[in-house]
Specification:
With 720 residues, the protein is mainly β. 3% of the residues lie in helices and 56% in strands.
Length: 720
């Protein structure tokens, strides 16, 4: 067997790379498997290899697409092409924001709730491998939403040997990409320091009408040995996106009937759907300083200090669902100072935040059969969010009723109606954890653990979101969480595991979007997780399977009370299901794999499946890798789901498939690869945004999202 500790360099033969305590037998099946699991895992797990990412997926794929091959994972969005427009992942029916996403062990996400932007921080050129943990893990697993599991991304690894490679691809919709990467190798003059520098630029006209997209990413990493027992890692990545789409995108059924499924914007300056009126600029960065030290025999210390930044500047028409993109008359808007007969409502939106944090962890081998892991996580953020309404035609805020002033009792300041909201907010959290790994018998590990956390949100606003009135509120929550996991190695290549854990998710910032937060009775969402499973690694076959049951409580809900939005808890959801994956490899480089899940996520009161939770997933494929030839054919199936919580026929989303075929040939210094995604050109509905419309007009104002259809690309690779 071979083992890798946290953030170890990947194995060049298997392609299975950095992870937390990943131990995988070097069997034929695991060498070629796109997805496998560790024998040491204490919860259901799927490890996605770098070779699969590099050889079987388009270079533009985002991290949700990388994780899609795993059991119980589905995604929606991505209408503009793979990795081109933002997608959202679902794990066992938990939505984005209800499970963690980490990068090199650092949980990241938005500051209003822990949701994510799939094409903004970490494109696939920055990712070595993906480990999907379908469960809370041990007490040392960190994040705001542990009960839903974790999608763990690990950064590209540095190498001991100097080298460089360049990838250039061109494909459907005038999509082209250039991706250089340089490895310094071990620099003897710097004590064996290894440096990796990379970048990526993407341009596309987009699948959807008048929706071009541009992305620039820069990535750097240095691993610095400081003596034989200490290692320092420095990492930084910068990303900038520019794209044209309305703030709330997706065509209505009427627009689909008139223009097709890929309609988004047009070239008519008299229309709200004019592409130049609807655009977004996003800029992000992420920095990490990681110190790893063996400070004494049996004592290991790790510290991760990090910061990340997100800036979203959006300009958009207020409503692009109206057919023809019609404009509005002054009288229809209640104007008091218009000089033009027609106007076009729009708004400018800013969401900008900076997050800082530190994760400290110590592992102490107290006896040959007991190891203690303890540490803490602190994080704080500063956020500024605002939305200003304006008339796109007139080009300013002082139009229609937007220039009207109003006062608020007890506030000496004058306020303007064009300020929809303008707020500063802060989030602070602390988590302390400890766990004890016991080995009372050969092959058996039992790990009890405990975590305590506190979370505080605060708002200071001249105009709060939803209420449009000044606000200065703060709210805190705290929770204690127990953990218990066990893994038993029945044989060297067979293990069984079990897990019990409590989960927690603090309420989102929106609970402070009201006039009097003291009226809220909201408690954090909590869960009790129970899981059992087994992993087997044979010489030519790799198998794992599991059963899970999650009792989810305190589901967030809201209602209007005296014109104010009040948040409260209602009922809960029971998540349960079975999952499994199998890979069988022949000696000639050919492998077959299949995985799948049956997922139930039913409301405790209605007994109906909750929205956006597929009732099952499946994946299957053929992989061939021998000599200079690489070939893969994979298919992902996502089962029936509903866009609302009522299982109503009007919002039933039928099952759909996504099939990707890739073939490549390596000439030595140069290689060529062709990829076709959505091979059978499926353009089915993946999600529906339910909007308020005229009474009785079901679906009329709702916005639909479709699979982007067939996309093809060819890549040329050079390595030096």
């Amino acid at each position: 067997m071979w083992a890798e500790e946290s953030n170890a360099a990947p194995d060049t033969e298997t392609g299975i790379a950095e992870g937390s305590n990943i131990i995988v037998t070097g069997t034929r099946a695991n060498e070629i498997a796109p997805v496998t699991s560790s024998l040491q895992t204490t919860q259901p797990q799927a490890i996605v290899s770098r070779s699969f990412i590099e050889d079987s997926l388009p270079a533009t794929a985002d991290f949700n697409e990388l994780a899609l091959i795993t059991p119980s994972f589905s995604n929606t969005g991505g209408d503009g092409g793979m990795g081109i427009s933002e997608s959202k992942g679902q794990l066992r029916g938990f939505q984005d924001g209800e499970y963690n996403i980490t990068y090199d062990g650092v949980p990241f996400g938005d500051t209003n709730d822990p949701t994510h932007h799939s094409n903004t921080f970490f494109p696939s050129n920055t990712i070595e491998t993906v480990v999907v943990d379908r469960g809370p893990g041990n007490a040392s697993n960190l994040g705001q939403a542990t009960f839903g599991g974790s999608v763990n991304l690990f950064s590209r690894a540095t190498r001991e040997d100097m080298g460089a490679n360049v990838r250039a691809s061109f494909g459907t919709n005038n999509t082209w990409l250039i991706r250089p990467m340089l490895q310094s190798g071990a620099i003897d003059a710097l004590g064996g320091t290894e440096v990796l520098l990379g970048g990526q630029y993407v341009h596309t006209d987009g699948v959807r009408s008048y929706a071009p997209y541009h992305q620039l990413n820069l990535f750097g990493k240095a691993v610095i040995p400081i003596g034989p027992d200490v290692k320092l890692t420095l990492l930084s990545t910068y990303n900038k996106n520019h794209f044209n789409q309305p703030d709330n995108d997706g065509p209505t059924l009427q627009q689909v009937a008139d223009h097709g499924k890929h309609y988004l914007l047009n070239n008519d300056p008299a229309s709200s759907q004019y592409w130049k009126y609807n655009y977004t600029n996003k800029t992000t960065d992420f920095e990490l300083v990681k110190l790893e030290a063996d400070i004494a025999p049996g004592v290991r210390f790790e510290n991760r200090a990090y910061t990340y930044f997100y800036n979203n500047s959006t300009y958009t028409a207020a409503d692009t669902t109206v057919e023809g993109g019609k404009v509005y008359s002054a009288s229809g808007l209640g104007a008091t100072s218009r000089t033009s007969a027609d106007g076009l409502p729009g708004y400018a939106k800013l969401n900008s935040y900076r997050t800082y944090g530190d994760i400290m962890k110590a592992m102490i081998q107290v006896t040959p059969w007991a190891e203690i892991t303890a540490g803490g996580w602190i994080e704080w953020n500063v956020t500024h969010r605002k939305r200003y309404e304006y008339d796109i035609f007139a080009g300013g805020y002082g139009n229609w009723n937007y220039n009207q002033k109003y006062t608020v009792a007890g506030d000496p300041n004058t306020h303007y109606t064009y300020i929809n909201y303008d707020q500063d907010s802060h989030g602070n959290q602390q988590q302390l954890f400890a766990e004890l790994e016991l080995q009372p018998a050969s092959g058996l590990k039992i790990t009890p653990g405990f975590k305590y956390l506190e979370f505080t949100r605060s708002i200071s606003a001249i105009a709060n979101q939803k209420t449009h009135t000044p606000a200065n509120f703060s709210k805190s929550w705290h929770q204690s969480l127990p953990f218990l996991t066990a893994n038993y190695m029945v044989k060297d290549n067979l293990s069984v595991y079990a897990q019990y854990a409590k989960g927690f998710l603090a309420p989102p910032l929106s609970v402070l979007y009201n006039k009097d937060p003291s009226n809220n009775t909201l408690k954090p969402q909590t869960s009790s997780n129970y899981q059992v499973g087994a992993v087997y690694h044979g010489s030519h076959i790799s198998v794992d399977a599991d059963y899970y049951y999650i009792d989810f409580n305190n589901k967030f809900a809201s209602k209007k009370v005296g014109g104010d939005t009040v948040f409260y808890n209602q009922g809960g959801v029971v998540y349960k299901g079975v999952e499994g994956q199998v890979t069988y490899a022949l000696d000639n480089g050919l492998a077959l794999f299949v995985n799948g899940s049956l997922n139930s996520a039913k409301d405790k009161d209605t007994k109906l499946q909750v929205s956006k939770a597929p009732k099952g997933t499946a994946a299957a494929g053929i992989l061939y890798k021998h000599g200079p030839i690489k070939f893969s054919l994979i298919d992902k199936y996502i089962g029936v789901q509903y866009a609302d919580d009522g299982d109503t026929a009007a919002y039933r989303i039928a099952p759909y498939h996504k099939t990707i075929v890739s073939i490549g040939y390596d000439f030595g210094m140069f290689a060529v690869e062709g990829t076709v995604s959505d091979l059978f050109n499926s353009e089915k509905v993946t999600s529906i945004d339910i909007n308020d419309g005229p009474a009785g007009d079901i679906n009329g104002n709702d916005q639909y999202h479709f699979q982007p259809g067939r996309e093809a690309s060819i890549s040329l690779k050079a390595k030096f």
